Amino acid sequence: MDNRMSGKDISEDDIIQFRRTCKNSGAKVVVETTNARDSFYRASVELVLNSCSRSTYDSAAMLIGGESPQNFVAGIAFNLGLDSVRAARIVSASVASRTRSWFLQAWALEMQGKHSEAVEEISKICLIHQIFPPEEFSVCIQLYTF
To answer: Crossing angle, helix 69-80 and helix 84-111, to 10 degrees?
Structure first.
């Protein structure tokens, strides 16, 4: 948390090590403020989404710290004592945000005639929706509809 307060991002390795340590020891961590806890969880979700977006594998083969993306984020939420409903909302909002970003990027690339790069962006959306399927008619789905 000291790194975040001094403007440094939490590293992916630190998040994976945090999860591994908590999982192996069965520990739960109490974070002083709700904002700090949620911020750490959001950073963890971003790690997962970044890892998924770099993956060329299908969603079944994706592992982060030896766990599926779903189990990894659920485990972090548990280790932080984050309510499952709150955790699900954070994941859902992050997926919606990424989906919109990738869709707009794909559109821009297609308009520039960069079809293969546009397909890569759409592939990221497909993969992330296989891993974290959005709920039908959810508010987050509406975030990326025009």
So the answer is: 140
